[in-house]
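Supplementary notes for students who missed Thursday's class. We covered one full example, reproduced here. Read the sequence, then the structure, then the short commentary at the end.
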Amino acid sequence: MAKISWVLASDIDGTLVGHGGEPDLVRFLRDRPQIGLVYLTGRTRPNAEVLLDSHGFPQPLALATDLGADVYWGPSLSLDEAWAFQQRRDWSPRQVVHALDAVDGVNYQSRCSYWRLAFYARDLTAVGEARAHLVQQGIVCRTLFDEDAQRLDVVPRSALKGRALKYILNQLHIRAQQCFVAGDAENDGDLLSGRYHGVVVANGSRSFKEKLPDTIMRSGYPGAQGVLDGLSRFVKQSDWVSREHAG
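Structure (token representation):
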């Protein structure tokens, strides 16, 4: 395996995939094996694998699924049991469903995975009541509301992409300065919080982009083209800095 100089840590849907330009980014990555890959997604492992394989993306150093609740190590994608155990300590799907049965305007839809429960939520008022009720019941979790879809997802409180990425980089002994992050949406917020250099692609919402620090580039290109735009600049700048220091 080539020595890893940099890591691209990216969301999948709406960032790597979904807005065209995937072949150009795949070609760029395959030509540069010194760029290691970490994929972070709300999808389950099987769904993520099918989508990535269909576009020919290289095998990752690690794959974090269900918003970071599970971590799999490449190339075989073996589950990190110790990481999964940490998430299970205060996670009870049955308790969450039972608690939200009592909230008017919130209805259970499906269990997307062990780590993610989907509910219909009538409006923001219902969401506020659901969140308050979970706190009153002593249930420790995180809630994500998609107002357009009227969908409320409940996940473990520690299911955070940024938290999973920090763990992955520590395990691989890779410094934060070597990592470039990419995303498009609110659930990528902790990835794009300023710990790493990175890019938000053009299809991200304006309100989301306005919250991000200056270390995050705002690409004028959507999806994979936006990732390629930001990553190629980062690699070029990193090479220049390395040469300056060497000189």
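Commentary. DSSP finds eight helices and twelve strands in the chain. The domain at 6-86+159-246 is CATH 3.40.50.1000 (Rossmann fold). If anything here is unclear, bring it to office hours.
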